[in-house]
Amino acid sequence: MNFDEQLDDELNAALKEFRSSVHGWSEAAYFRPRTAIHAAPRARVWRLVAGWALGCALLVGAVGGGIVEQRHRQELARITAVQTAEQQRKLAVERAREEEDLLAKVDSDVAREVPSAMEPLAQLMVEDESK
């Protein structure tokens, strides 16, 4: 008998012993007397139910508060955008009015027969012509 055969025999013997011990333990566990599981007292059940209910209420409140906060921020952003647009519109109207005034001034300056610096001389000439 060589070394490998001796190891195989020892391994087989160890496995047989392990198998028989597992079977013995299983039979002992199967046939042992079982005790009934005690029902939880009512107070403990109600405490557990109340805890879950309060937890769910807290969760719903937190989610609802987050949604309300998000809607509030969206509304503030919308109001700010409307106010900004109104302010830009007013600035555009004011710029347009200023441009109109400037163009009217330029138009009146261009429409003059005599520049404003030479106007006293032009009045003297008009007076001379009328005499």
Key words describing this protein structure:
131 residues; mainly alpha; 0% strand
Shape: elongated
- Please count the beta strands (DSSP E, at least 2 residues each): 0
Q: Assign the structural class, choosing from mainly alpha, mainly beta, alpha/beta, alpha+beta, or little secondary structure.
A: mainly alpha
How much of the sequence lies in strands comes to under 5%
Largest sheet: none
How many H/I helices? 3
In helices, the fraction of residues equals over 70%
Q: Please give the alpha-carbon distance between the first and last residues.
A: 159 Å
Query: In terms of per-residue confidence, which ranges show pLDDT below 50 for 5 or more consecutive residues?
Result: none
Listing every helix as H and every strand as E from the N terminus to the C terminus, the arrangement reads HHH
Rg (C-alpha, Å): 51 Å
Please tell me the overall pLDDT: 87
Task: Explain this structure.
The structure is a single chain. By secondary structure, the protein is an all-alpha fold. The protein has a domain at 1-31. It has three helices and no strands. It is elongated. The chain starts with a helix and ends with a helix. The mean pLDDT is 87.
